[in-house]
Batch of 2 targets.
Target 1
Amino acid sequence: MARRFPRFPVGHKRSLKHGFTALQQRRYHVMAARLHVFFVQQAERVVARYLGTTTATLEYPVWMGRLAWAPAVKETQPGELLPPEEDRRLQIVMVPDLEDQYIQSSHYAGQLVGADVPDPQDVRVRNFLLSAGARIVDINDTTRDDIALQLALGGERGYNQRQIARGVPQDNFPGLDATVAQTYRNRSDTIVRTELSYANAQATLDTYRTQTVEWVEVQDGDDCGWEDHDDPDLADGSFRTMDQADEYPIAHPNCVRVFLPSDGPPEGEEEEE
Ligand SMILES: [Zn+2]
């Protein structure tokens, strides 16, 4: 038997959406700054590996210790500019904040449905961190592709090692340094917003599931589509099953989607304003 939930009045829905968003907003600035620094230091390491020089960035694994949740680091191939240890480094920068975000969002969602906050050791928290960890590897994979492109283009143009490493501004060639540091676009901001949205959505849905919620009412940007931003099936104000929500926790990077517990679409009546 599904639980019954009150239909939230519009003003209340708006403040609940704001509540979920504010939780992410507080963390966003600190995390984006931290990730920005990470990319700058990662660029130093990539350039040092490429040129065979050294950097002042601490060497792995001196500073990181052992982490129960982190997967084993794969063997590094000689000449690899972004070896697997970089995945672990990035996870160490991001995971503590994402875990905390997951717990906080679970607490907020739990207040809506009367659920307790999960223990950090709980399997649902671990499962979230596994999926976040995989997305973090994807972030480095994107950088790996960018590095390969820079190397290929630099080779084609006959640049020397130093030019490939540091860039050739008059040709609009960023080089390895600026490519990895992402100094020319807001990559760290988008990554942080996206990962915080994932944490928030996953925490919300996992929490509702413990209380046998079957439907959610979606709050989203005004013209945000359900499957992607341009989907004509609009997300905001729509009712979705939990399975549908699992499939599309967010529609695009920077998505502000939020899920409220619901009894499903109203029968035989238009949804009133
Ligand atoms: Zn959206």
Note: The chain has a mean pLDDT of 87.
Target 2
Amino acid sequence: MSLSARRHLRSHGLRCTEPRRCIVEALRSGPKTHAELLRLTRLDRVTVYRNLITLQRVGLVYRVYFPGKPPLYVLCQQEKQGTHAHFFCQKCHKAFCLPSEAIQLTGVWAGHTERIILFGQCPECG
Ligand SMILES: [Zn+2]
Ligand SMILES: [Zn+2]
């Protein structure tokens, strides 16, 4: 069992179960659809679905939507859960954790940046 996948799960307050570890490992190489995760992890549909919900609840995984396409599941690269937004490149489909100071909301919105996903072209593509 890879130590870093375990640490990644623990840093988000989750026990390192085999399905969670498999999903985190599969997402390390880049965003995946539910179908791709099924194929890569060889877990059953319900197990993948249920664990994705748990991983999303703690902010370790987030979902990116495109009109008319299945959503992509993306792994947050940071070990500790912080209040930071994400950037998704529409061209190469790479996802990035933005530094927490990149987007800071104030007042009642403070600390609610985790679900913000910016779309555009990454420095490599742009
Ligand atoms: Zn992140
Ligand atoms: Zn790109």
Note: The longest strand covers residues 69-75.
